[in-house]
Amino acid sequence: MRITILCENTAGPLSGTLGEHGFSALLETDGGSLLFDTGQGETLLPNARRMNRNLHEVRTVALSHGHYDHAGGLWPLLRTSGGKEIHAHPEVFRSRYRVKDTGEPLSIGMPYQREFLEGLGARFVLNRDWREIMPGIFLTGEVTRRNRFERGDSGLFCDTAGCCSDTHPDDQSLVILTDKGLILVLGCCHAGIVNTLEHARELSGVEDVHAVIGGMHLGFCAEEQIDETVKALRRFSIRKLVGSHCTGFAAAARLAREFPGSFQPGQVGFTLEV
Length: 274
Ligand SMILES: [Fe+2]
Ligand SMILES: [Fe+2]
Description:
Bound molecules: fe (ii) ion
Shape: globular
Strand order of the largest sheet: 8-5-4-3-2-1-17
């Protein structure tokens, strides 16, 4: 199996690839290819082409949640490489906003109507539960919030006035069972990386975590949450901790210092073969 980051905030050393605020990872397995998230839509196709990855072979797409920087690539993907089965949570189409300190709302939700995507061949499978979407590959479904310190991003709302906090019930991660242990692929991980790891361990029945790859959303939270996350992560003995997207520069630097030998940045072109 091979995992490749196709979209991420930063282009890696492979010349000719592009960065954009967002995330997408391609899983190629003996049982077929799966795309987890699609970035904002500007870099998915050119980066896949540059890395010789064929998106026509992708029959299954999974969305981590309904933010534009993860779902925006659906239109270019469907337009150029045909219909796909798309696994997501029922709340993936809800309206969502970042409300700035000035009170100005920015729409950050799914940039397309469901009917528009279905007209391009999307077949949505919406479900709140833990489930196997390809052999040995699971979606967490709604992640139980177990701890007090993963409070989420306080600037995100379901309304333009900034009254109704967005709790991101649709946030989910991919969990892959391998003979080396679990591999988790995160979108933004609004549910919290520790909550998500505990959820994945409990529902898979596997304790050992080989790798965690993706957005850890620590760039938007309080210092206290980073402290507690570092403490909690020590308990998991993760061999590869690959921070992308919304992990944030300062939090990534901290994780690199706290987990030397395990942590590395996951940029466009990062590949893990298992
Ligand atoms: Fe994101
Ligand atoms: Fe997000």
